UniProtKB/TrEMBL annotation:
TM annotation in the entry: 35-57, 69-88, 94-118, 125-144, 150-171, 183-202, 214-234, 246-263, 269-286
Keywords: Membrane, Transmembrane, Transmembrane helix
Upper classification of the organism: Bacteria, Pseudomonadati, Pseudomonadota, Gammaproteobacteria, Vibrionales
EamA domain span: 6-139, 154-286
Domain of life of the native organism: Bacteria
Record's protein name: EamA family transporter
Keyword Lipid metabolism included in the entry's annotation: no
Membrane topology annotation: Multi-pass membrane protein
Subcellular location: Membrane
InterPro entries with a match to the protein in the record: AA-Vitamin_Transporters (IPR050638), EamA_dom (IPR000620), EmrE-like (IPR037185)
PANTHER family in the record: INNER MEMBRANE TRANSPORTER, PROTEIN PAGO
Organism: Photobacterium iliopiscarium
Keyword Chloroplast: no
């Protein structure tokens, strides 16, 4: 497969995997408690991630002096945020959940400004404001039309996004250069063991009541979403550019919304769908590299001369 076809294949794969993940979490919840489902998801993913790390000769342990980050990442990036995601889907649709999570680039940009003193370009600031305002309008509109429980689901997803963004920035600051599989393999295993312990004391787990649909959804989350999604996305970044790969954040919510509407009949209101356009444009602008508009202006000036 040539590089162009590989890029297209990876891009489509990431969009489909991320887009279907939200519906899979919704199906898993039909008969499996959220904490146990998340623990099982990571337990399934961990051995395959460890195997891939060995095959690709990537270390399992974080570098010396940074080993404590194994546990920080396991809890603050995997265990708690992913549990909040699936817990929140008990109260809001998978489509709306995906829209909230699609704002990850915006959250990362904000946290980079706070923790890394990142200076944003004017177009990035405009995109950030546009995305935040659009998301707030969508959420306000959907909460007004939905039940009071919408707030619970929204807060859970919002906290998960913020936690992921903070962890992304902190790891960039303190653990830069750690391989992708190193970052995911053992932390996934640690997260699963922690969540199984929490589930034991906080959930009433009846394995006999698990449906095949829910079990299949967790297997999909473990193998395809947690492993396939990671490998496909970071391979996509390698063969294209981070900016092009980030466009997946604009596509996967559309996939999730289509699935939610087609299978469950859960559709956003017309007003919210209209607000999706400025939301996606705002997210896109936050990912446009600095200086790109200045470069184009210089090129136009040079060509005109």
């Amino acid at each position: 497969m040539n590089s162009k076809l590989l890029t297209i294949f990876l891009f489509i794969s990431v969009c489909l995997i991320w887009g279907t993940t939200w519906f899979a979490m919704e199906v898993a919840l039909n008969s499996i408690p959220p904490i146990f489902a998340t623990a099982l998801r990571f337990l399934l993913a961990a051995p395959l991630l460890v195997l891939l790390a060995k095959i690709l000769n990537q270390p399992l342990l974080f570098p010396k002096g940074k080993r404590r980050w194994l546990f920080i990442v396991a809890l603050m990036y995997f265990a708690i945020p992913f549990t909040l995601m699936i817990f929140g889907e008990q109260y809001i649709s998978s489509g709306l959940a995906s829209i909230i999570f699609a704002n990850m680039p915006v959250a990362v940009m904000l946290m980079s400004g706070l923790f890394l003193s990142l200076r944003l370009a004017k177009h990035q600031i405009f995109g950030l404001i546009t995305a935040v305002v659009s998301l707030c309008l969508i959420l306000a509109n959907e909460m007004e039309m939905g039940s009071d429980d919408y707030l619970i689901g929204t807060v859970c997803l919002g906290v998960a996004v913020v936690m992921h963004a903070v962890m992304y920035v902190l790891v960039q600051k303190h653990c830069k250069g750690i391989e992708v599989l190193t970052y995911n393999a053992l932390p996934s295993l640690i997260a699963s063991l922690f969540l199984f312990a929490v589930s034991t004391v906080s959930e009433n787990v009846n394995v006999e009541a698990f449906s095949w649909d829910s079990i299949s959804a967790v297997v999909y989350l473990g193998f395809v979403a947690s492993v396939g999604g990671i490998v496909a996305y970071f391979k996509l970044v390698q063969v294209s550019t981070p900016f092009k790969a980030s466009i997946c954040f604009l596509i996967f919510p559309v996939v999730a919304l289509f699935i939610s509407s087609y299978i469950n009949g859960e559709a956003l209101s017309q007003q919210s769908l209209i607000m999706m356009l400025p939301l996606l444009v705002g997210i896109l602008l936050t990912k446009v590299p600095k200086g790109i508009f200045k470069q184009r202006s210089i090129l136009k000036t040079a060509n005109s001369n």
